[in-house]
Amino acid sequence: MASIIPVKEFAERRRRLMELMAPDSIAILPAAPERVRNRDVLHPFRQDSDFQYLTGFGEPEAVLVLIPGREHGESVLFCKERNPEKELWDGFLAGPEGAIERFGLDDAFPVSDIDDILPGMIEGRSRVYYPLGKDQNFDTRVMDWIKVIRSKVRTGAHPPGEFVALEHLLHDLRLYKSANEIKVMAKAGEISAEAHCRAMKRARKGGYEYHLEAELIHTFMAHGARSTAYPSIVGAGVNGCILHYIENTAPLKDGDLVLIDAGCELECYAADITRTFPVSGRFSEPQRALYEVVLAAQYAAIDAVRPGNHWNQPHEAALTVLTRGLIELGLLQGTVEDAIAAEAYKPFFMHRTGHWLGLDVHDVGDYKVGDAWRQLEPGMVLTVEPGLYVAPDNTAVDPKWRGIGIRIEDDVVVTKDGCRVLTDAVPKTVDDIESLMAG
Ligand code: GLY
Ligand code: MN
Ligand code: MN
Predict the structure, then answer these.
(1) pLDDT tens across 44-56, in order?
(2) Residue 438 parent element (H or E)
(3) What is the position in ligand 1's atom list of the atom closest to the CA of 355?
(4) Where is it found, in Gene Ontology cellular component terms (predicted)?
(5) Where are the domains of the chain?
(6) Ligand 3: distance of its center to the CA of 393 in Å?
(7) What fold, for 7-174?
(8) Where does residue 314 rank: exposed (0-12), middle (13-18), buried (19+ CB within 10 A)?
(9) pTM of whole model > 0.85?
């Protein structure tokens, strides 16, 4: 499948980052390390999100170096050399030539030469941006390169004096998605929505949670999305009350709800959808009552996603609707204002209403600027995911509510005059879910 994000967009991102960097600085960013799964088997390789954002280069053992104003090219990649024998076993390598021709880097060298070449590139630059403290091995390598320069000060070498976390600059860029990024995320959302529909239609009593997980993976893979964005959560009955339940081994029982929180990863971008539906295809009265509260909270939160509103407004909107619903159904007492002030909703709703979404499922970007919540701006992508979870041992409420866990989650992009839901191809009203499951 051809990539949606063109090579020139990666070059544009590097250019924008270099504009933010001090003129006499250098940025150094390593690819993700490969990780052993067991003995000589590796985990499937997933590129580091920052590295992916700036290169689109999917190989390990590579280092990106950005050197604003460098005459022979500002964007430099160190990567593995081509090697027919290795490639016969492990697959195609781009090599430094391919990095330039196919990935649009200005200059490239074999990564085996980095210790000889990079200190010379750092020398004379006063500031080094790198992922400070993210990987101890890489911190050590950076300091080793610096030591090479320090050892030459008596011959006039200038070692850098400032070391700055690259993330400060880079993560703010990543927060604002381009039209192409939104296209990829919309596609990831569409595939994931189709997967949720398939799982809903195939849910049967007597099946197991992992049967539904298999249906999700089937649809992801069938569309070329080879990985999930995070381990799929398929929680039937009381398992729906465990926020990060990934065991997925319990039976599906008549009368239970199933909560599925799952999304695929496409071109390294995440989708993140949750739906909750009855195994039998019909909600019971208490399930429906709580479900309608969560759905109303989700609509209210989505309605609050628009430019000019701040990050916390969707959460506040959801909290009000959830708390009012809990009072009206008798799970909480008192006024909405008092219950919110006392955080009385917390036993039923203990997480936030969303998070930034992008290359990482819990994506980068600050939620506050100083002490103030961040304003929502076009191009920001976030999830909206209120829920209600009644613990099975919550003796403070009528037994009919106990063990019900519900979350409804969609992916939403802020637009010029509101927002667009990227994942609305999977039903979420009670009627639409019941008719999909009956069909
Ligand atoms: N799937 C993780 C989350 O919804 O935050
Ligand atoms: Mn989420
Ligand atoms: Mn989720």
Answers:
(1) 999 999 999 999 9
(2) helix 430-438
(3) 5
(4) cytosol
(5) 7-174, 176-438
(6) 25
(7) Creatine Amidinohydrolase; Chain A, domain 1 (3.40.350)
(8) buried
(9) yes
